[in-house]
Amino acid sequence: GAGADNDLYINQAIVFIEDAIQYRSINHRVDSKSLWLYRWYYSRTCQWILSLTITVILALAFIEEPSSLTVTSDVRYRLPAWNPPCGLTESIELLCFLVFVADVSVKSYLIGWKEFWKNKWLMAYILTLIVSLTDWIVSLSFFCKESVRIRRILRPFFLLQNSSMMKKTLKSINSTLPEMASVVLLLAVHLSLFTMFAMLLFARTKDNQQDKEWVVYFRNLPDSLTSLLVLLTTANNPDVMIPAYSKNRAYSIFFILFTVLGNLFLMNLLTAIIYNQFRGYLLKSVQSSLFRRRLGIRAAFEVLSSLKETPTSAQQSYVSVGALLQVLQRAEMDSRCKQAIMRSLKMCSCDQLSAAQFQKLFEELDKDAIKQHPPSPDYQSHFMQKMQFAFGHPYFGYLGNVVALANIVSICVVLVMDADKQPSERDDFFLGAINCFFILYYLLEMLLKILAMGLKRYLSYPSNRFDGLLTVILLILEIATFAVYGFPHPGWRPELMGLLSLWDMVRLVNMLIVFRFLRIIPNMKFMALVVTTLLDLVKNLRAFAGILVVVFYAFAITGIMLFKGAVQAFFIFNFLIQASFSIKKVVVLYFKGKKVISWCSAHFQAEVIYCLLYILSVHPIYRWAKIYFVAWWLISSVTWVNLFVALLLENFIHKWDRRCQRESLSDIEYQRTVELMFRDVLEEPTEEELMEKLHQHPHLQLCR
């Protein structure tokens, strides 16, 4: 009947609006049962279960053989790692696979058979599950003794396919690869030419004493290419040129030319190309997200205009305000947006909304998230008003910054004076006394600010919450110190009387005080701009972090399988992380049961990746491992770091351009998403484009 149809239209509108909010495709089944299943699938509980399952299956690598469950990674001190019995992790895996099978089944049903064959991600999802389940069966048939487990490498796919933004980011990266390939090819030509020059320049001579460059770095083609490739990362600089430079200073021209052309020109050119191309492709991706949002809103309008009580017109359709209010009350959306739309509806004097009015209402979804701070208390007393003015003034905050700086300086002075003293020789009286004074000041400052601003307004500022939390922790630690060790006095250095010694408690207090000094950041506009840029990246660019996890995980598992018995497994993940950020360290490798220790910083001044390449080159059987580490360097350091720089630049430039507009709005905080970063340059889809797409919907039949 009419009532059942109206309920269906309302439910369809609710789902379409929720799709628009989350930038989801609307090409799914729209009958009553499918809509209920669709909303259940995208509910917080169901998505939380799916996210937990993905986390569990990824975390299995830390307890599977070889297990990483040890306190220390130092082989001299660590105890034998616990390895789970056969069938334990496999049972957990099976439960995860069952969840994934249910997930892919629901997704396939909801989009329909015709759309399923167009969706490459779903087909890849099913193929990954088939391969993983087959490998799982093989693993059990060998009683968990097989050395290669393909399903481990495939696990990151479950994380990748569950995020639409990660898929778009990956697609953008894939589209950028052709332009990147041209520069990488130029880089390869650069390496090849200079490798040939190096082999000619540093050829073997009759004097063995003068052949150090040839012996160590340019003995043959693979060694020469490796040496220059590592020089491109500046890891073996200046060691690679020292023997030749000792022989003749003129040889330095070769290395200078190689470094200038490779590092200053080609690598920076690669960064510029990645920034330009990736930004363009990401912009296209965000443009398609905007189209999805507009399409979802328009689909909601079309189904609501089909309600029986809605008056129809030959030229134009309308939606009743009452129907929209009913939809808004049941839709899952941000309370700020919902309240803003309802306020706009109440201010509107009309009973029906046209398509343009309907779409304009939901533009609230595209706006910055604005947080307005509560007002300060209105004191009637003249004395309290003066107090409020004095302690709510920015100068009072500046005074607090000066006091915090004085606290840091005093701690530094004491640490310098006591640097060479034994713990038994230290007198903690002075440090304890100044800590007590400054903590009392911080407590007084917090209470006066609460008095001037009111508790709600005080807590509405993140910097105040940061200050207040640290002040409370410092106060608790100080009270605990006094309760256990008494008040500071000359010669105040009692022995350990609890969980922490006096010196440990004082150090903990001082570390928190140093951390509290970060309160000055909001008062320095340029520094605040940099910090907010980084925080926005952390909050909004989860897709990039997710792809980074996928890359790290896949390479780590591959490394464990490739170097089993050659390189201890628990080092692989650590190597990959540190190689990306050029951290020098001692590399401990095991070859055929024999420990080989290379003190890289002492002899090579090199990075982890260079140490690995060198040690692996010593053992001919492992020379092929260079391919693995060079591939890792190209993907993580060259490609991924440049992509991160591109997004960092985009976010920073966007904030820099907008900072002048917002300096006067001190009581308002803005929070932006990746989509909002590009909002000013996006094009709105036309009505014809929206209607054409709606008429192509595989499951929705429009009345017009």
UniProtKB/TrEMBL annotation:
Keywords in alphabetical order: Calcium, Calcium channel, Calcium transport, Endosome, Glycoprotein, Ion channel, Ion transport, Lysosome, Membrane, Repeat, Transmembrane, Transmembrane helix, Transport, Voltage-gated channel
UniProt xrefs under SUPFAM superfamilies: Voltage-gated potassium channels
Reactions accelerated catalytically: Ca(2+)(in) = Ca(2+)(out); Na(+)(in) = Na(+)(out)
First-listed, main subcellular location of the protein, grouped into a coarse class: membrane
Transmembrane segments: 45-63, 122-143, 180-202, 253-275, 395-417, 429-448, 469-488, 508-531, 543-563, 569-591, 603-622, 628-649
Membrane topology note: Multi-pass membrane protein
Subcellular location: Late endosome membrane; Lysosome membrane
Source organism superkingdom: Eukaryota
Coiled-coil boundaries: none
GO BP of this protein: calcium-mediated signaling; endocytosis involved in viral entry into host cell
Gene Ontology CC: late endosome membrane; lysosomal membrane; monoatomic ion channel complex
Ranges where the Ion transport domain occurs: 53-278, 397-652
Gene Ontology molecular function: calcium channel activity; intracellularly phosphatidylinositol-3,5-bisphosphate-gated monatomic cation channel activity; ligand-gated sodium channel activity; voltage-gated channel activity
Family membership noted in the UniProt record: Belongs to the calcium channel alpha-1 subunit (TC 1.A.1.11) family. Two pore calcium channel subfamily.
Record's protein name: Two pore channel protein 2
The encoding gene: Tpcn2_1
